[in-house]
Specification:
It is built from 17 helices and 24 strands. The protein is of the alpha+beta class and about 775 residues long. The strands form six sheets. It has an eight-stranded antiparallel beta sheet with strand order 7-6-5-4-1-2-23-24. A five-stranded parallel beta sheet has the order 8-20-21-3-22, with helices on both faces. A four-stranded antiparallel beta sheet has the order 13-12-15-16, with no helix packed on it. Strand 17 and strand 18 form a beta hairpin. It is flat and about 190 Å long.
Length: about 775
């Protein structure tokens, strides 16, 4: 098949009708800038050949342009020398028309047109090959040339597509050249029969029988028969064991029920009970005697302790009474001395302040004398009463000390004033001297004395009083450390204890007034009675031994009786089981069930051997398939190798299953394709797609190789080499390259296409 023209209207990028006309054999290049609509035209090709005209939903929305409209695609293509025209209208008024492009005669419409299209493109003899698979191998949309060239690989999800239509188309083309390979129908039929037969017997993992299959049923039948055999064998063994158990129980019952065994045990226990009763009575008398002795001993100790405490209490009361009397006398003396001390104010501090004032006055007097002048006044007989000093008349001679100034009046004859140069300082000293003189007089008056010596005598008397007071306090502290009241309380408490001891009662068997000597005699008698009672009574070890003997005898008889009861119940139960067991005859069916087990085991063995044989065959088929894989890949490798050598030199590209590329070997170095650079992976992808197109062409499925924006990651040298390979790919009848790298692809020889305006109603393009 070869493309001749492509026309679109209201399709994605193209709201207005456009066309590409004049598509020739060989290489065709449509180059232009980004957003020119090259990828839109590629999608229009896919819509024409691969999409139903009744497509709706997201697929239809994806075709519509932003301004709206109903998508229209028209393709002219040639097959076997005849040119066909396919016209598809999507959306409202959807239809499909297939016509002869030369005559204009309509050959089919709608669904018939789409079915006829598939038949024309792929050929009637290859009706089993999906058209989408064939075109998917050689129509490489934008960015997919950069992805792995594996058939049915979806670059959007990085996973294999589930349908496998591209692989099927490729394997159909390859197996036309490979005879007797694993792709043959006979081989596939054998493998399917082997897989189906194994699948009927075991699970997919081949590790267990398939549920509900023949092997599973045979194993279940064997398990059921084995379970029934085991049940029958258990029933037979249980019947035999019950018979032996009944015989043994009869023997045990006979031994346990020996004549006189119960009577002998009862007599022995009765005798032991009597001995224990006598021992308990004797031990009671011994215990009473011991308790009486202990009571007497406790009472004697109590009486001795009480007498000792009473004597000590009396001595303490006498001592404390004397101390209290003396303390009360001293308490009265303390009051007297305290009153005497409080009545004498001549404390040491007060006397010292008087001493300090006298010393200050002496110093001040000396200072005043140093600052003063001495004035002697001799009064004559005639002048008596006529001379005044500071306004005071004098009648006799005087000697005056002047500290500041002095005025002498001579009876109206003259006034003499005497002023000293330091009068102000002398006046201040005089004022201080007068103040301290008044303080000294006041303090002496407060002590009711007139001299310092009298004050000192009075202070000495007060000190003596305080010393006597302190001595009395020390005596009182020695007699009553916590005070007279606490001492009196202690005496009262001792007196209360003395009264309580005199009135106290005792649990002694003797009267409280009994003397200590009488108590000691009573103790001696109680000791003798205890010795006599202890001799007649069993000691603790002997008594415990007697009790153990009696308990052992009782337990032995109880165990014998329990044993008899248990054996009787067990024999009755076994007898009932023996008579009612195996009513369905299981014990008697052991041989018959064993035969069923043998036959079921043989069937399981047969089917297991069949599984082993089928698994061996399956493994052999895998080995044959592995050995033939190179033959299957050989047609692809044969056409790919020259292209690889042109680009990479001596190189080889290895494939995995499903024609997935695996490793590139160049210069003896093997590299995983996934680790190669972006440009190298893109070049490999284009070369593999070219090889797919060549194989399809040789098979009779010649299809145009369509590459949308390829080789975007190739450097200049590699790009030149790749363009040379594409230009010389003569085995591919037609190639359509869509690229935005116009200058880079200028070296690719071939027809240069351009997008033209188109009038759908006329059907002929016009130059835009």
């Amino acid at each position: 098949m070869k493309l001749r023209a492509l026309r679109v209207a209201a399709f994605r990028r193209f709201a207005a009708p456009v066309a590409i006309d004049g598509i020739r054999d060989g290489v065709n290049v449509l180059a232009g800038p980004n957003e020119m609509g090259k990828s839109t035209l590629f999608h229009a090709l896919e819509a024409a050949f691969l999409m139903r005209f009744k497509a709706g939903g997201a697929a239809l929305d994806h075709m519509r342009p932003h301004v709206g409209g109903e998508p229209l695609v028209e393709v002219d293509f040639e097959r076997d020398g005849r040119v066909w025209r396919l016209r598809k209208q999507f959306g409202r008024g959807a239809n499909a028309i297939l016509s002869d492009a030369t005559t204009g005669r309509i050959e089919a419409r709608n669904g018939d047109a789409e079915d006829r299209l598939v038949s024309i493109v792929r050929g009637h003899r290859d009706a089993a090959v999906d058209l989408g698979g064939m075109l998917g191998l050689v129509w490489v949309r934008q960015q997919r040339s950069f992805s792995r060239p594996d058939p049915d690989f979806d670059p959007k999800t990085d996973k294999q597509k589930s349908r496998g239509i591209e692989y099927t188309a490729l394997i159909d083309a390859v197996t036309a050249e490979v005879d007797a390979t694993v792709s043959g129908e006979l081989f596939e039929a054998v493998r399917r029969r082997t897989t189906d037969a194994l699948g009927a017997l075991v699970t997919t993992e081949r590790s267990a029988a398939r549920k509900g299959g023949p092997l599973d049923k045979a194993q279940s039948a064997l398990a059921d028969a084995s379970a029934k055999l085991a049940d029958a064998q258990r029933a037979a063994a249980a019947a035999h064991d019950r018979g032996d158990a009944i015989v043994k129980l009869d023997v045990d019952l006979a031994l346990c029920n020996a004549p006189g065994a119960a009577a002998l045990a009862a007599a022995t226990i009765s005798k032991l009970d009597a001995e224990i009763a006598n021992a308990v009575s004797a031990r009671g008398r011994r215990d009473l005697a011991m308790e009486k002795l202990r009571a007497l001993e406790r009472e004697a100790l109590w009486a001795e302790k009480s007498a000792r405490e009473a004597a000590e209490r009396a001595i303490e009361l006498e001592r404390l009474g004397a101390a209290l009397s003396q303390a009360e006398i001293i308490e009265q003396e303390l009051k007297t001395l305290a009153e005497k001390a409080n009545a004498n104010p001549a404390t040491v501090a007060v006397v010292q302040s008087i001493v300090d004032l006298q010393n200050d006055l002496t110093v001040l007097g000396a200072q005043i004398a140093a600052q003063s002048a001495l004035v002697d006044i001799d009064v004559t007989e005639a002048g008596r009463g006529r001379v005044r000093v500071d306004g005071t008349p004098i009648s006799e001679n005087r000697s005056l000390s002047v500290a500041d100034q002095l005025t002498i009046d001579l009876d109206g004859l003259a006034a003499v004033r005497i002023r000293l140069p330091n009068a102000s300082k002398a006046a201040a000293l005089k004022r201080e001297y007068d103040s301290k003189s008044r303080q000294l007089a006041d303090r002496l008056a407060a002590l009711d004395v007139s001299t310092l010596d009298e004050a000192r005598g009075k202070s000495a008397a007060r000190t003596a009083t305080l010393s006597a007071l302190e001595a009395c306090r020390l005596q009182q502290a020695a007699l009553a450390p916590q005070g007279i009241a606490r001492l009196a309380d202690r005496i009262a408490a001792l007196q209360a204890e003395q009264t309580a001891a005199a009135d106290g009662s005792t649990t002694s068997p003797l009267p409280a007034a009994t003397s200590l000597a009488a108590r000691r005699n009573a103790i001696i008698e109680a000791q003798a009675a205890l010795t006599s009672a202890a001799t007649a009574a069993l000691d603790d070890a002997a008594y415990r031994a007697l009790v153990v003997v009696r308990q052992t005898a009782a337990e032995t008889e109880a165990r014998r009786a329990e044993r008899v009861a248990d054996l009787t119940v067990r024999r009755a139960r076994l007898s009932g089981e023996q008579s009612g067991a195996d009513e369905d005859g299981r014990a008697a069916s052991v041989d018959a069930v064993a035969g069923v087990v043998t036959r079921a085991g043989a069937e399981v063995a047969r089917l297991s051997n069949e599984v082993a044989a089928l698994q061996l065959l399956e493994m052999t088929l895998r080995d044959v398939e592995a050995a033939s894989r190179d033959a299957v890949f050989a047609p692809i490798v044969r056409r790919l190798t020259p292209h690889l050598e042109r680009i990479f030199g001596a190189a080889d590209l290895a494939f995995k299953d499903q024609f997935a590329v695996d490793q590139l070997t160049r210069n003896g170095v093997r590299e995983a394709v996934a680790t190669l650079s972006d440009g190298t992976r893109e070049q490999l992808s284009v070369l593999v797609r070219l090889s797919f197109a060549e194989v399809l062409a040789e098979r009779g499925h010649a299809l145009p190789l369509v590459l949308d924006d390829p080789l975007v990651f190739s450097d200049d040298e590699r790009l030149s080499q790749m363009l040379d390979v594409l230009a010389n790919a003569s085995a591919v009848g037609q190639m359509l390259v869509l690229t935005c790298r116009e200058s880079a692809f200028r070296a690719l020889a071939g027809e240069r296409l351009r997008i033209q305006a188109w009038q759908p109603e006329v059907g002929q393009p016009t130059i835009s």
